[in-house]
Specification:
By secondary structure, the protein is of the alpha/beta class. The protein folds into 2 domains: 232 residues, Aspartate Aminotransferase, domain 2; 121 residues, Aspartate Aminotransferase, domain 1 (Alpha-Beta Complex). It contains 11 helices and 12 strands. α3 packs across α6. It starts with 13 loop residues before the first helix and ends with a helix. It binds pyridoxal-5'-phosphate.
């Protein structure tokens, strides 16, 4: 029997964001339409400069998606067949898919069950003579332990590629996501904290020569025009997306702070509840791309919330080492116990900046209605 819903709270409401900044966004899009500079040009260069500054990185190069950002970083470093890249077993598919797509072998490391990020204590055991790079993921908007990961990379002379797709503006001990590794890879997928009106991505780098090589790779390796010393691809960021993202970047800190405030309210409302609240490592600035709780009867809770008009999502139901496409890598159930348990228990609740206090209280009450003992 359907329950009468008091209100509806979607997982994400991009219309609320558009309503907030409609005039600025419309103006930016029209500016590009009038200019007819649809490829490259001042909007893309402007965004690259602003993102580099925001991420405290020397260089930033726009590209077609967060997935391409990872692919381009791997390709610049000449990582391919015969090489291994270590990454987290609990992430969005692209973290491992890109490694496989350049012909290298993804090697998975289990997570720290509190922060959901790659457990640095397990990292060294995954390194072999074939390891070329480590690609940690800053999951849900919270940086992994970059100090520990960087120390292992330095010791073994490995490249460090940060998958910062969910973590723009997040920090580890005062250092911005994407500014610590050899490359930082960002996504402007609409559901990220800085989301475009379509696909988009960015790579940050501190080394000028590697940044320049990546810039070439994203445009067929063409330099001078129609002369190709290296084989690249077409992976550009559209000028219209760049113009939209420049507007949104000006609001990003305000939005990330609103997400953190919403998280703090949930945290309070969930005090004493039979669920695990997200862990905020005090060494990080958490930007709460997602607010993820853990519960035993996760699927039951999700159905309960759906009935009450509340959006939720499972990020991610299958850890990467158990994905069907990676069966040839030879992993088995039980190999990454923390990732497997997380996949069974996690549930992301609405956390977007425009949520009202009333909505948050409604969601929290609905959660507790299910999890609190009667
Ligand atoms: C979103 C995401 C990506 C890929 O970004 P796209 O822009 O969708 O290609 C990569 N890694 C992680 C962790 C992500 O969340």
């Amino acid at each position: 029997m359907p329950v009468k819903t008091a209100m509806s709270v979607p997982l994400l409401d991009l219309r609320a964001q558009y309503a907030d900044i409609k005039a600025e966004l419309d103006q930016a899009v029209h500016r590009v339409l009038e200019s007819t500079r649809f490829i490259g040009g001042p909007e893309v260069a402007g965004l690259e400069e602003e993102v580099a500054r925001y991420c405290r990185s020397a260089h930033a190069i726009g590209c077609a998606s967060g997935t391409d950002a990872l692919l381009l970083a791997l390709r610049v470093l000449d990582i391919g067949p015969g090489d291994e890249v270590v990454t987290s077993a609990f992430s969005f598919f692209a973290s491992a898919g890109t490694i496989a797509n350049v012909g290298a072998r993804p090697v998975f490391v289990d997570i720290d069950p509190r922060a959901f990020n790659l457990d640095p204590h397990r990292l060294e055991a995954a390194i072999t003579p074939a390891t070329k790079a480590v690609m940690p993921v800053h999951l849900f908007g919270q940086c992994c332990d970059l100090t520990a990961v960087q120390a292992v990379c330095d010791k073994h002379q490995l490249w460090l590629i940060e998958d910062a797709a969910q973590a723009i503006g997040s920090e580890w001990e005062g250092r911005r996501a994407g500014s610590v590794g050899d490359f930082g890879c960002f996504s402007f997928f609409p559901s990220k904290n800085l989301g475009g009106a379509g696909d988009g991505g960015m790579v940050t780098a501190n080394d000028a020569a590697r940044a320049e090589r990546l810039r070439l790779l994203r445009e067929h390796g063409s330099k001078p025009k129609y002369h190709h010393a290296i084989i690249g691809t077409n992976s550009r960021l559209d000028a219209i997306q760049a113009a939209i993202l420049r507007v949104k970047l000006r609001h990003l800190d305000r939005w990330s702070e609103a997400r953190a405030r919403n998280a703090a309210l949930y945290d309070r409302l969930f005090e004493g509840a039979h669920l695990v609240r997200p862990y905020h490592d005090p060494r990080t600035r958490h930007i709460y791309n997602q607010y993820v709780i853990r519960v035993r009867d996760r699927d039951g809770l999700r159905a309960h919330l759906t009935e009450r008009g509340i959006g939720s999502e499972i990020y991610y139901p299958v850890p990467l080492h158990l994905q069907e496409c990676f069966a040839p890598l030879g992993y088995r159930a039980g190999d990454m116990r923390e990732s497997e348990e997380a996949a069974r228990e996690v549930l992301a609740l609405p956390i977007y900046p425009e949520l009202t206090e009333e909505q948050i209280r409604y969601v929290a009450a609905a959660v507790r209605d299910f999890t609190d003992p009667v």
